[in-house]
Amino acid sequence: MKDAENEQGKDKPAGSQSLFRGLQLIEILSNYPNGCPLAHLSELAELNKSTVHRLLQGLQSCGYVTPAPAAGSYRLTTKFISVGQKSLSSLNIIHVAAPHLEALNIATGETVNFSSREDDHAILIYKLEPTTGMLRTRAYIGQHMPLYCSAMGKIYMAYGHQDYVPAYWESHSEQIQPLTRNTIVSLKEMDKELAQIRQQGLAMDREENELGVSCLAVPVFDIHRRVTYAVSISLSTAKLGVIGEEALLKPLKETAAAISGELGLKVGGV
């Protein structure tokens, strides 16, 4: 265990080892909303228990960590919600996109999602709940979504570098698993899917991530025609079958075009 700790300390700025270790514990705890036992946390972080306990005490004194109901377990506090919201509100894109997303939400009555891309994930940075119906998706602001099984994720793959998808498929082979019977896990099938997305300007999640829920997503372009954001509408598959894709596609594309315009893309450039 000691060797692992020394290995983790390599290439880190002098005097910052505790900071990096503390951040590592925070990231691990974020996956355990009901709490993670100290022993398991120590194993996951590859640190000895005394080191983990000392770091947890420091985080607890600052109000970021608290003991969980289960004895010997710890969880994050709601203080991270406040920090996260402040971080998101500082992004100009939220202020730019919010009015257009709110108008889309009112016009369709359905769940509206807005994401950005970070490395090999789509990150949900804004979400509006449906104004009609009772369906609430499991998605939440700050959620990291895999690219291969989400509509917005497929948008990023479709409009990314041509060599990216094969590399992604190889490096994430262990993570690419069938979440439902509709999940695309074949690179050949995904290549066909992405070609169709580029042709139509639309990506769909056909119950590939969550049974009973479908999603339509379109790209948002910046002034350089890069796709770093995506907009989507989520709703029950049954309801989508009743109202049809076309009823949602027009306002969805108009919203993406409006946000793209705010980011400098010339009218008619999408």
UniProtKB/TrEMBL annotation:
PROSITE patterns registered for this protein in UniProt: HTH_ICLR, ICLR_ED
Domain annotation HTH iclR-type: ranges: 16-78
One example GO MF annotation: DNA-binding transcription factor activity
Keyword annotations from UniProtKB, A to Z: DNA-binding, Transcription, Transcription regulation
InterPro entries: GAF-like_dom_sf (IPR029016), HTH_MetabolicPath_Reg (IPR050707), Tscrpt_reg_IclR_C (IPR014757), Tscrpt_reg_IclR_N (IPR005471), WH-like_DNA-bd_sf (IPR036388), WH_DNA-bd_sf (IPR036390)
Domain IclR-ED stretches: 79-265
Record GO biological process: negative regulation of DNA-templated transcription
Name of the protein described by the UniProt record: Transcriptional regulator
